[in-house]
Specification:
The chain has about 120 residues and is an alpha+beta fold. It contains 2 helices and 5 strands, in the order H-E-E-E-E-E-H. A hairpin with a 2-residue loop joins strand 3 and strand 4. Helix 1 runs parallel beside helix 2. It is globular. The termini are far apart.
Length: about 120
């Protein structure tokens, strides 16, 4: 297993500011380590640093897969997981903002506030 570099303080600040802007308050962020496949062509798992938080019955994770490469996901349960449609980002601010926007749109559809475009 190859260990990726941890999130730097400026990276943490980027995530913290995006999350605080969304909910108009500071949300506790938790560092974590996850194992993920870095390539679809490889079954090898690589340990990567991640930042995890919960808000409004939803869990969020941003995974650092390289020096400036990031993945993100939100989920309500192990069977109810979602991404942004982008496999990997090279811009952490865009990764975090996209994650928060897609989840907000998804939450609106789940609540019935926005019609589901697939219907």
């Amino acid at each position: 297993m190859t260990n990726m570099p941890d999130f730097t303080e400026p990276e943490m600040k980027t995530i913290r500011e995006s999350v605080a802007k969304r909910w108009k308050k500071e949300i506790e962020l938790h560092p974590a380590d996850v194992e993920t496949m870095l390539s679809a062509n490889s079954a090898e798992l690589t340990e990567c640093p991640a930042i995890f938080w919960n808000q409004e019955s939803c869990s969020f994770i941003v995974i650092k897969t390289g020096g400036s490469q990031y993945r993100c996901q939100f989920f309500y349960s192990p069977r109810d997981q979602y991404g942004t449609g982008v496999n990997e980002y090279s811009d952490l601010a865009k990764c975090t903002t996209s994650l928060l926007q897609v989840q907000a749109d998804h939450a609106s559809m789940r609540s019935g506030a926005v019609p589901d475009p697939s219907n």
